[in-house]
# Entry
Amino acid sequence: MDMNEKPKVEEKVEEKVENAQPVEENKPELPDTTEGKLVEVLLEKAPYAEGEVIRKRRVKFTVPAERIHEFLELASEKFEMLMQISVVDWLKEGQFEVNYQLWSLSESVHAFVKTRIPRDDAKLPTVMDIWPVAETYEREAHEFFGIIFEGNPRLGPFILEPREYEKHPLRKDFNTLSYAKTIYGEDFDRFDESKTNYVI
Amino acid sequence: MQNGDVIHYELKEFQVFEPLFRWARKKSLWIVAFCTGCGGIEMPPLANARYDFERFGIMINPSPRMGDLFLITGYVTPKTLKRIIITYEMMQDPKYILAHGSCPINGGVYWDSYNVVKQLDKYIPIDVAIAGCMPRAEAVMDGITTIMKKIENGEADGWKRYRENYEWYRKNQDELFGEGWREKDARRWLAWI
# Structure
């Protein structure tokens, strides 16, 4: 098997309906709670974002990628702490979803700030100037997914071996099995395709 | 050295006392305190009141220079394997390896993972491997008893196999890490290499 062989992706064919009537946007009203007020205040300052309350102590924002830094700077007034930057790979849509998880120390609210960027040529501005701790998370996201955070001075090989760093192993089109076969050899039973010696 | 030559590491004048030495070795297994992977969590119950391995002369020891028994507790990544090999080579002969769980045998649940070594026996010699995931303290105790019996019978000869087949082990290690990995990586942690 070829190491760089990519799994097939079914392409979605969407029929475009012409003369579609504009659907009236029914935005759900924000509840009259601490979380609801928090989202409301933030959305007033940043009308380009969308926000909702998921449940108690959990809110969610969706921001376009161009204005993510601006939004996070605003959000950092209320959400003082950056807990994590995590990435989801949406292979069929050809996008990475980057989640900034924020924690508000004063209000005890956990916020997800989601943004989407294209998979190829994935670039985002760094948020190290807002939270210096972002350096580590950005290095990790860069290593496992290949996202470039512009302005982060320490992007490069971090946790992985050099040969894995080139491949970005947490991307969905990284073929783990054939990579393992190439690196560790095929001389053991677990890789028996006929399942005669299948162990697990 | 030519093929077929067997190296005798036991001094000839002491061969009479060899059974005594083996008995003594089995009674004082010092463990290198380098728990690699999830099996390290089985060590506290082993050391505590219920199993209390110190009554068998087993002790956890921070220095590889004084260690006899090396526990490979669970999965091994290439990054850990480099450290394991260096630590193993720092230990004095005779030295024994006890591998916990199915991961060192064939990769375990991580068998298709990109960074878990599938067959540990290709890179360093294992004396006793315990199957299953995760072996409970009883199973580890059983493995230690087995290795004690093997030491007494002279069957625990991993350290001899490592010396005699060093080129084969070295070849496998170089295939995985690339040539010159010792010079590249080990120099960072061991200044004298």
